[in-house]
């Protein structure tokens, strides 16, 4: 019998990573914090949109967990003196860009005993994208391919 993975105490277990396997990512949307005319280079949330009309949101939880939820992009909103959150297409602004049109082949989560899921690596036919919650921010990285001829 396997030990269950720890779940985020604030957000629950979220979407099972295995639910992403086989989905063909056709577009990416993101939410960005804007303040005083500048846009933060790190997205607040990212959505993977698939060929079936599904959407999966990746975001950093308030307790530094990595949230993975099946939900559509939300509308942007104003935060008064703190700026605004703008939501829109981000196909060419994330490490997912080279993988558009390709299916997720594998999903490997990482967990922490106190916060639940903290990272998720998604494998595509031509590479991997690592999604992680670090210091309360969503970080996305292309993982270098090793062992290629």
Explain what the structure shows.
With 149 residues, the protein is mainly β. It has one domain. It contains no helices and twelve strands. Strands 1, 2, 3, 4, 5, 6, 7 and 8 form an eight-stranded antiparallel β-sheet that branches. A four-stranded antiparallel β-sheet has the order 9-10-11-12, with no helix packed on it.
**Helix content estimate:** under 10%
Total separate domains: 1
Query: Which structural class do the helices and strands define?
Result: mainly beta
| Percent of residues in β-strands | over 45%
Major sheet characteristics: 8 strands, antiparallel
Quantity of strands, as a count: 12
**N-end to C-end Cα span:** 40 Å
- Note poorly predicted spans: none
* Average residue-wise pLDDT: 89
Order of helices and strands: EEEEEEEEEEEE
Number of helices: 0
Mass-distribution shape: globular
* Spatial extent as radius of gyration: 15 Å
Quick structural gist:
The protein has strands spanning 24-35, 38-39, 45-50, 55-60, 66-70, 77-78, 84-89, 102-103, 106-112, 116-124, 127-134, 137-143. With 149 residues, it is mostly beta strands. It has one domain (21-143).
């Amino acid at each position: 019998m396997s030990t269950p993975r720890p779940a985020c105490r604030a957000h629950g277990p979220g979407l099972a990573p295995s639910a992403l396997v086989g989905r063909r990512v056709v577009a990416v949307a993101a939410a960005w914090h804007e303040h005083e005319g500048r846009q933060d280079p790190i997205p607040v949330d990212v959505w993977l949109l698939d060929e079936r009309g599904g959407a999966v949101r990746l975001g950093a939880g308030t307790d530094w967990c990595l949230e993975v939820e099946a939900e559509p992009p939300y509308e942007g909103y104003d935060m008064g003196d703190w700026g605004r959150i703008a939501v829109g297409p981000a196909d060419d602004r994330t490490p997912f860009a080279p993988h558009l049109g390709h299916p997720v082949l594998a999903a490997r989560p990482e967990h922490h005993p106190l916060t639940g899921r903290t990272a998720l690596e998604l494998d595509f036919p031509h590479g991997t994208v690592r999604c992680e919650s670090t210091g309360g921010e969503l970080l996305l990285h292309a993982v270098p391919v090793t062992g290629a001829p």
